[in-house]
Amino acid sequence: MSTTLNDAALDQLFRNARTYNRFLPQAVDDATIATLYDLLKWGPTAFNAQPARYIVLRTPEARQRLAPALSSNNREKTIAAPVTVIVAHDKRFFDQLPQQFPAYDAKPLFEANPALVETTAARNSALQGAYLILAARALGLDAGPMSGFDAATVNQEFFPDERHAVNFIVNLGYGDPATLFARSPRLSFDQAVTLL
Amino acid sequence: MSTTLNDAALDQLFRNARTYNRFLPQAVDDATIATLYDLLKWGPTAFNAQPARYIVLRTPEARQRLAPALSSNNREKTIAAPVTVIVAHDKRFFDQLPQQFPAYDAKPLFEANPALVETTAARNSALQGAYLILAARALGLDAGPMSGFDAATVNQEFFPDERHAVNFIVNLGYGDPATLFARSPRLSFDQAVTLL
């Protein structure tokens, strides 16, 4: 039976979690990346389609390949991050549906409808990117998600086959609290929620 | 200092969490909905833009308004759910940026670029919908997200002002484990992740 997680967990996941621009000089090892995927993969997607693909840039050299695509305020901090993940989607995600969603053959539905492929890939890879952020926090990591980059340049550099496309980018590491800015506010309940 | 959450928490959020189609006859009260928003609101969005708006359908009558838009396999279970949330976005989210992101005036950036408004709203309201799913699980609730509906019909019924648009829909409640199907598989690490 599920109950509410304790306050420390809710703080770590949501209430005290922050977007970090600078990280402590502490590596994110491959075992942690494997553990991260083994959590985030369970998040729900439409038809269990799991369109997201994750390119993990572990070295400054690998991250340097991103530099020309990044906005000026994202460049330096990304090169300096312990790990950067390109959250992308596979435009042929539906080829795997017969294995991933055995309950119903949804592959023809997507083969016949490129617009549905596009919206499903964009929406669900975004969901999976959010699962990555929260799974990272659940493991004691901090995330620095960003969408300030030129998508065409990222796609050209990392996905020359044109089969994949970037959604957004997330720096990962152990955040340096000394570098945090003041926290921005949030919309009130009444601004964001309508009860019917 | 953050550490890894305990196994019970990781199970509840990710490893044992399931998408539910049927819920126990246990209400989701307004206090729980308020607590849910007070968690999910902290999730990161680009420029802290928070484009998502949440329409919470608490009664069968309110959910009945959704029925004509839902695919046949989503209709009955949604009418029967304790609560249904329409995750939408506000196309004028950037009007609130001067208050929500005081560090930098991003409003003109969006005013001049309708395509950027569209992709930012779609991506970030999807992220916020994922935060809602995981915040619900953190509170011991279960979620039943779905995208099998006619968006134009939902928008016409709930957003006649054309200022808002649906992204996806989530049933919430306390899942009935007796109604679960066998769990679908997930892509292996090597299918989804590339280490560079």
UniProtKB/TrEMBL annotation, chains A, B:
Flavoprotein as UniProt keyword: yes
Cited Gene3D superfamilies: NADH Oxidase
Keywords of this entry: Flavoprotein, FMN, NAD, NADP, Oxidoreductase
Occurrences of domain Nitroreductase (ranges): 17-174
Cofactor field: FMN
UniProt cross-references to Pfam families, sorted A to Z: Nitroreductase
Family, similarity comment: Belongs to the nitroreductase family. HadB/RutE subfamily.
Catalytic class of the enzyme: oxidoreductase
Cited PANTHER family: MALONIC SEMIALDEHYDE REDUCTASE RUTE-RELATED
Enzyme Commission number(s): 1.-.-.-
Domain of life of the native organism: Bacteria
Keyword field contains Kinase: no
Name of the featured protein: Putative NADH dehydrogenase/NAD(P)H nitroreductase GW587_24110
GO molecular function, a single term: 3-hydroxypropionate dehydrogenase (NADP+) activity
Organism: Duganella aceris
